[in-house]
Each structure stands twice: as C-alpha cells, then as structure tokens.
Amino acid sequence: MSNISEAPSEGMEGFVDDWASDKDAFKGVSWGKAMMWIFLLSDTFIFSCFLIGYLAVRTTTVIPWPNASEVFALTIAGEHVPLLLIAIMTFVLITSSGTMAMAVNCGYARKPKAAATLMIITALFGVTFVGMQVFEWSKLIEDGVRPWGNPFGAPQFGSIFFMVTGFHGFHVSIGVIYLIVVALKILRGDYEERGYEIVEITGLYWHFVDLVWVFIFAFFYLW
Amino acid sequence: MAYVHDAEHEHLHDPTAFWEKYIFSQDHKVIAIQYSLIAIGVGLIALFLSALMRMQIGFPGVLDMDSTEYYQAMTMHGMIMVIYLLTALFLGGFGNYLIPLMLGARDMVFPFVNMLSVWFYFLSVIVLLASFFVPGGPTGAGWTLYPPQAISQGTPGVEWGIILMLVSLIIFIIAATMGGLNYVTTVLQARTHGMTLMRMPLSIWGIFVATILALLAFPALFVSGIMMLFDQILGTSFFMPDMMQFGEKGEHTGGSPILFQHLFWFFGHPEVYIVALPAFGLISDIISVHARRAVFGYQMMVWAIVVIGALSFIVWAHHMYVAGMNPYFGFFFAVTTLIIAVPTAMKVYNWLFTLWKGNIHLTVPMLFALAFIMTFVAGGLTGLFLGNVVIDIPLSDTYFVVAHFHMVMGVAPVLVVFAAIYHWYPKITGRMLNDTIGKIHFWITFIGTYLIYFPMHYLGLQGMPRRYYLSENYQFIPESAYAMNEFITVVALVVGISQLLYVWNLGYSYFRGPIADANPWKACSLEWCTPDTPPKHGNWGDAMPVVHRWPYDFAVPEAELDYTLQTTPASEVPVHESDHDEVTLAEADDSAKDDGDGVPSLVQS
C-alpha cells in the first residue's frame, strides 16, 4: 500500500486520523465492547425518556404529589425512619459495582476463578437488591398504592413509580442472569484462549444499571 | 495480524442443511433478503389498503366503507408504510446486504444477533397483522396514535387493535435495536484494509447515520408505547386527562396528552431521516455510477448527512404547531426546521453537479434516481411552507399535508427502493431484471406520482380536510374537488396495479433473467469485486480485499477503463485523493493489538 503515512500525526489531527483510518475507528476496542457501549447509549435514551416523562407528568398533574419521605418511610421499633430501605438498597447496589470492578481486575490479571467468584458475589448483591425492591413494592401495595391510584396524592405517582423502578429492576434481573451465565462460562474455560475482556463488557452493563439507579434515587426519593 | 489474517487462513464453517442456510441463516445476505421480502409483502398489503381508501374518497358509494373501516385502513396503511416497510427495508434490507459487502467484511460482527433481529421483525409483523383478525379489528387511531382518542371508547380497535399495535411496535423496536447495534459496530470496527471512513460509499454513510438515529430515536417511541399500553391495560393516566365519556366521568385523571405528542415526534421526526438518509446515500451512489462521474463534493455530502442527522433531533415540534404550544417554541422549531433545509439543499445541488457533464446512461435505476431528485425537491419545497407556523396552521389539517408528506417521505424513498433494487438485483441474484418491464413500470409510477399528488396540493389549498372518510355535503368544498378526487383515485388504482409488473419482474427474472456478470454497471465500489456473483457465504473467498482508493474513481486520466475498482492498487492506477484528506492507514502487521477479539464470530465457530 502506497499511501501509509510515515509518522502518525499528533494532537487533534492525530485523533481525527485515527478515527477515520481503516479497519476500526476505536483502536484496540473489541467488537463486543463497542457494541455494548452503543447499546448503553441507546438504553440511556430509554431511561432519559422515562425520566423526562416522569418530570413532565409530575409538573403537569393538578393533584399534589405525595411526600416521598413519608411514603417511603419504615417504622422500626416505633421510630419513624424515612428512606431507610432505599438507603440500604442503594448501598447494596453501589457495593455490587465495587465487587464487579474487582472482578474485571481479576479477569485481566488472568485469575478466572477469582473473577467468576466475584461476579457471582455481584449477582448475589443484585438478587438482594431485587429482593428488597420486592419488599418495597409489597409494602407500597399494602399501603394502597396502585398503578391507577393511591391514597397519598396524584395517581401518576404509583404509575410512574412502578413503571420506572420496575423497568430498572428488570434491568438488574437481566444483569444477574447475564453475570451468572458469564461466570459459569468462565469456570468452564470458554475464555481461556480469547482472554477475559467479557468480564469488562459485563461490568459495563452492570455499572450502567447502577448509574441509572443513582438518577432514579435522586429523582424519585429525594425530590 | 488481526481478523483479516484469520479470515484468510481459517476454514469457514458453511452451513449445509436447508433450514440453516435459508431459514435460520446467520448470513447477512440471506437475512437482508428475508427482511426485504417480508417488508415488500407487508408493503403490498398497505398498498392494497390505500387502494381501498382511494375508492372510498373518489367513489364513496362503491365500497360503501363506514368510518370505522376507513380509519382502520388509514392507520394500518400509514404505520406499515413508514415503519414496517421503509424503515425495515432501508436498514434491515439494504443495510444488511450492503454494509459488509461495501466495507469488505465477511459478515456482520454478531451474525446470531442479526438473525434474531430478522425473526423479531417477523414476529412484530405477525402481531401487527393479527390485529386484522381480533374482535373490533385493527386500531383506527391514525398512524400517530394520539391519545386520548387512541384508547378512548368509540375509536375503532380500542379493544384489541391498539394493544396489538403497541406490542408490535415494541417488538419491532427490539428487532431494530439488535440489527442497528450490528450495523453501527460493523461500520465502526470491521472495515477491511484501506477502507477508511472517508472511503466509504455514501450509501454506507447514509445507512450508518440513519442507524444511529434509529438507536437514539426509537427509545422515545418505546417509552411512549409502554406508557400508552399501561394506560390502556392497567388504567394508569400518563396521557389520559379527566374526560367525560358517554355522560360519565372516565376512569383516568390528570394525564398529559401533549407529553405523548412530544415523545412520539421526538421519535417521529428522526424517523423521517431514518428513511431519508439511506435514500440519500443510495441515490448518490447510483447517480455517480450511471452518470460515470465521481460524486461531487464527497466530503460535503458526508458532513451534510451527519449535520442533517444531528439537526433532526431538534425539529420535532414542527409537527405540533396546532397542538397549542407556546408560540416561542413554534418560533424555535420553525427556525431549526428551515436550517435543516440548508444541508439538504446542498445534497440536491451536489447531485446536480454530479450529473453535470456526466455521461448519463438512462438505465432503469438511473431513471428512478432522477425521478427521486425531482420528487424530493417538489416535496421538500412544500416542506418549507409547512415548516412556518403561520402557513402550517391553516394548511395543517388539509390534503396539502398529505401531498407534501407523500411526495417527500412516501414516494421519494420508494423510488429509491426501486432504483436500488434495479441497481443491486444483479449482485443479489446473479441475474438482470427485465429492462422493458422496468421502463414501463418506471413511467407509470413516475407520471402517476405527479398525477396523484400534485392535485392534492390544490385540494389542500381549497380547504379539503384530510382524514375525513366522507366529504359529501360540505359547503366549503367546491364541486371541482370531487372531480379531482375521482381522477386521483383512477390514477392511484392504475399505479397500484402496475406495481404488480414490478413484483412479476422480480420473480420472473430470478429464474429467467439474463445471467449478470460480476459488475454489470461497471461500478467502482467493493461489492462488485466479490469473487462470486451472487456472493457466497463469507463473501470474499480465500483472501480479504484490500482497498486502495475511494469508491468513485470514474474516468481517471491514467486508467485504461473509465472506472477503477477500489481494489486496484495505486501502482497500476494512481490514486488522486486530492479532495479528501490524507488519512493514516493501519499497517498490515501492527494489528496484534486487536488479536483475539477482532476475530469475526463467523471464524470462531
């Protein structure tokens, strides 16, 4: 090939050249990783639309919105503790991101057993999170909150709450299955030759789900 | 040496069983044909529905449709044509077929996901068509499915039709996402040696940017679909305000119908460009080949595609001028709408400059391509009218909108579909289509388009309202409008029936057409360089192609032939890359870094 440039250009120009060069735009990024990033971009738009829908519904409805710190409060030993369960749930999910990051590290350090174990631990945290969400939902349902109405205020509160946390819980559940499948494949030795980048790809998804929760937490529970 | 090396030396696993090869195939070419056949089939159903509507409008007594049937036909016609035909055909059909072939890849990056994509698409079509057979029939809410009317008592199909429609859309979006992730990743990460981004044919640029739009715009439809489904099934009130129905207060309270319109059009306007951008790209390539001339201003064309794609996300509310928005919003969206005309006009000028002093061959694909430019300009100019708030408000609910929309977004992309199928059919099947039938089909379709849609502008200016199933006994509709409607109906039926010529041509030529050689149009781009026609599984035989130039090297002074293939080395014919910047190419042996992961899954198995 005659037109290979002698020295790679630097700075912004080098960036553009790299990007526009042949074969791959993102050098050294595998197909799976690129695809996961693009999927997450698309998924970001889904959650953004949900949250924008929530903001629009909350600002247009004429009936007052329920007070989050009352609705989401637990009464423990006679004490009224607002947001206790949510705080624990958030803590669990953030912790699971920590174990996930450790799994990625172990994967690249070629310690498949440690990586798989940490992924299983991450999945267990995920299951715990979903379990607590089930508890939270059943408590709300017990209190009379339904998708079509609730005793605390605007009926959209229940609708949007169940829809968005449900969609997020669905993502976490998918993530749990994904983690377990990949962990089992690692233990079976499927990635011995190809390397353990799959752990990082799984981790991208998991961190994304975690990040989405931070937004849901802020918008639904703190406002 | 990355996947190119492995692909050259490893044995391809060729499926032999019938169902593996033709039914549950993971080959992008088979998937593309599956997508196209399903899309064309469902498109013919939508065409038939439009014939029913035209009969009702032109000759109300003959079929004697009631309002329910008319609205159901209208809704299904619109939704099928926009989503299930055009989107699926451009991205799933042409995207699947052309991306790996034009970029020199063995297949899409994840063939299995690609296969799932087409089967999800098939499922969505089945669910959609099932709504014809449920109690109450398909939904008659209009293709925009505006609430509260879409899920209120009295609207046709409110029992089951609307639910099936929303479920079908959600399945379609999953299919489009799985396909789209593949297309984008393939374009970004799986090009062959020497295929830089600025050497990609404009077809690929159009499909690539349109796919990105699809991945970012479909989420809005997905979300609004789920919310409306909940409004209908669970009784939530996202979009449903307090309403009196049949003298009683409805079960919903406090929702916002305008929210649905915003979500829908945040999807809906990019959707126009999801269809238009691949059409722009394909037409650029076809014009260049059949005018034997390089695309004028290639870089400008690429940037116009990217800019149109970006702008398409901030113009959506020009569909909502009559929804009662704040006038300042109207001002903003009118301005962005008119700005988007600038890159679009650049593209039209560049097509004309490509034709200028070209050696124009009036082949069937070229005829359709030229027809596209004319139709697109005619339809686009009325878009400038409707983009302005003050002109849009009186015209919004008239046939003027129907005419504009069908010229620019209906017929123009369909003409590209015809052009592209006539152009690539020899590569897909190894046989040429019949030229005479093609030309008859072209002239009927082209002249018919103008006879159908030009009078509709006049009808609209006369105040003829759209979406009325019966327009008798209205004082404000002049007598001439009825005669005009009869005329349009007759032409529409002739054009509709003449499409059977085309379907017949596709079928007949597949078995009896003259055998095509590998490069019948003498084009330069990579898909015409395959060792076999039609290309076999894996596309490139033993050796991956190496690209040395852009895809438009027509009439290079030093070359013997008037076209120089992209694979021709610079040592044989000099490369004139004057109109695009020098780019850094990956050296042949520095690719160890993507070893392992760069291996196409095709080869892994």
Q: Would you mind describing this structure in some detail?
A:
The complex is a heterodimer of chains A (223) and B (605). Chain A has a single domain (28-222), classed as Four Helix Bundle (Hemerythrin (Met), subunit A), CATH 1.20.120.80. Helix content of chain A is 71%, strand content 4%. Chain A is built from seven helices and two strands, in the order H-H-H-E-E-H-H-H-H. Chain A has helices at residues 11-20, 31-60, 68-71, 84-108, 112-142, 156-188, 197-221; strands at residues 73-76, 79-82. Chain A is globular. Chain B has 17 helices and two strands. Mean pLDDT of chain B is 90; it is low at 1-11 and 578-605. The chains are: A mainly alpha (223), B mainly alpha (605).
Brief write-up:
The complex is a heterodimer of chains A (223) and B (605). Chain A is mainly alpha-helical.
End-to-end gap of chain A: 61 Å
Fraction in beta strands of chain A = under 5%
Low-confidence stretches of chain A: 1-6
Judging from the principal axes of the Cα atoms, what is the shape of chain B?
Answer: globular
Our count of domains of chain A comes out at 1
Q: Main beta sheet of chain B: strand number and arrangement?
A: 2 strands, antiparallel
Topology:
The complex is a heterodimer of chains A (223) and B (605).
Chain A: H1 11-20, H2 31-60, H3 68-71, E1 73-76, E2 79-82, H4 84-108, H5 112-142, H6 156-188, H7 197-221
Antiparallel strand pairs in A: 1-2
Chain B: H1 3-9, H2 18-23, H3 28-58, H4 60-63, H5 67-103, H6 111-130, H7 161-189, H8 202-233, E1 244-245, E2 248-249, H9 257-290, H10 298-311, H11 327-355, H12 364-387, H13 389-395, H14 399-429, H15 435-461, H16 479-512, H17 601-604
Antiparallel strand pairs in B: 1-2
Helix pairs in contact in B: 3-5, 3-6, 3-16, 5-7, 5-8, 5-9, 5-14, 6-7, 7-8, 8-9, 8-10, 9-11, 9-12, 9-14, 10-11, 11-12, 12-14, 12-15, 14-15, 15-16
